[in-house]
Amino acid sequence: MIHTRFASAMAIAAGLLAGSLPLVQTAAAQDVIKIGVITDRVGSGKFYAEPVTRGIELGTKIINEKGGVLGKKIQLIIEDDQNRPDVSAAKARKLVDDGVVAILSNTGSPATQQAQTVSLETKTPHLTPANSADTLTTQLDNPWFFQTGPLASIQLATLMSYTKSRGFKKVAIVRDNSSLSQSFAESFRKGLEGVGIQVALEEVIPQGATSAVANLQKVRAEKVDAILQAGILGPEMLQFFRAYQQLGMKEPILGSYNLSIPAYLTMAKDLMDGVVFVDAYDDTKPEAKVFHDIYLKEYKEEPSSLPAYGWDGIHLIAAAITKAGSLDKEKIRAALASTQNFTGAIGAKGTSWSFRDGKRTGFDPQGAVVRVIKNNQHGPVVHAGQK
Amino acid sequence: MEDFLELTVSATASGCIYALMALSYLIVLRPTSIINFAIGEWAATGAFVGVGVLTTLLWPRLDAPYPVAVAIVLVVLGLLGWAVERLTVRPLVKRGAPVTSPILALLGVLVIFRETLTLLFGADPFPSPPPLGYRRLEIGPFAGAPQQFFIIAVTLTIFAGVWYFFERTVWGRAFEAVAINRRAAALMGINLGRVTALAFAAGAAVAGMAGLLISPLTSAHYMMGLPLAIQGFTALVIGGVGRVEGALLGGLILAFAEQLGARYLPIPSGLTLAFPFSLLILFLLLRPTGLIAPREVR
What we know:
Chain A is of the alpha/beta class. Chain A is built from twelve helices and twelve strands.
């Protein structure tokens, strides 16, 4: 009997709790603005996704300290898709179910492409602040998706502009045998040939190689003016830099934006000084300085360009919500689409983002820069834009 | 000529790594007839243990000197090899399972090791400090990285030690006796279980050393095992499974074929990937016993 009474009391209490739960949730939901983040914490995209996410978290903290957006604090809900396209859509769905008003995608372009199927279906504003694939806004007609990262074509054109400005006539391309590296090398070759520069040879350092001496000896024998580094696999890139040092080579090395990932500076420590690479960050730009100082104060370390992408991304979303004046997803989408001349930490001096003529790629074509590595740090800008 | 001499150092160092991997296969294969494809992951584990001891990756106060790292890699990998034998191979052998069963079980061990490394250290490659620094080192007409000369010296020392063990010690003779005829060896009083356990422990220690030695050139990363396992197996097939010298010869031939081919053959460098597999197929078809045949039973 006692047991029965106890059970009944527990059942009533449970019922009351269950009944009150939606009320609690609703109250909590009204206090915050939920924004979803898809990152990669364990997979192949962790290198760049995690620093970008850190920038989003820092931006959110600063926005909240200044009073939030529409009087509410931003609450990030972060999901890990392991940079896997087959997981990314499921994570986007989970974020939508959790009540986010917008999603920021930080992992690889294929995963972001897949997550778009959910943002399109659920009509959720979706922004990638760092992805660079040119096809993200063309493969799927998704009016809810926006891209502010520097397009690969813009970065390539900027690097080619720099290469031509240096008067290089004959270059070598060195890559690994991953599909992304092959794609980089193909873009390099087309771009170089487009500006009349001869590609004397293309060397491949295969995955698992224990030496790149033979590859770089061939490059040295060709007496090229410069080497375009299109590798993306860390261990094979390390082989490249070790062999370059071992052979006492002096040819200038030009790298893709892949080299803006700070992890390479740790892995190939002191081997990359003098290497130039494409980036979209100029730390002498006033907006970049603001970001730099806040980041340094918060994390006690120098930021690379990657967190700045996230910083800008969350600020752009916050600006759109402010402009929309509500948490209505359609209004936020419309506010994003009407963004003009948004100046963030990312982009060359004097450039800004705009979604013009119905385009959903906002990066300024003159916004990419070429930087040089100095003292094992990403150093100053040596070239800006495509002109 | 300068190119050739530089390449000689580079190919010899790479060949030594392949040779160590082949030796690891051989040490396990001779007394047990088991091909252990998990040795690649043992090499990766050796690299990570080494980086952990040499840096502050595992513990803020580590940063130990190189000889300490070598000793710890040998002990840890030896214990892991011993544990793998006790937990996966021995139960199957005791139950009279066919020889393919331990090979398949060891493939499972491969996956467990790789996933454990990923969970513990993530997907990022870790730089591994070399004992002699990074620069161009010239010794007579030969030029290379100090680590390459170091790899060559350590490998030759290991091979000399293993050769001495097999040729001059009672335990080495016991290994050889088990390799020739397990049943007869058991009847002569040789403890088969102990020989097998020792073979796995020694094989793992040698593979771990290969991983430690190559990591300053490639970094330590969870995907480093499989290519090393393939290169080591190819070196073993080229040199022959019967003699220690075969593993060294096979490793050197493979590395020289790879690197001289990449440098001098008029083919796209991407095709050099096919060299190990072409040599593997060629030797399996034309000389399956390898270049150095085992000694005849007397």
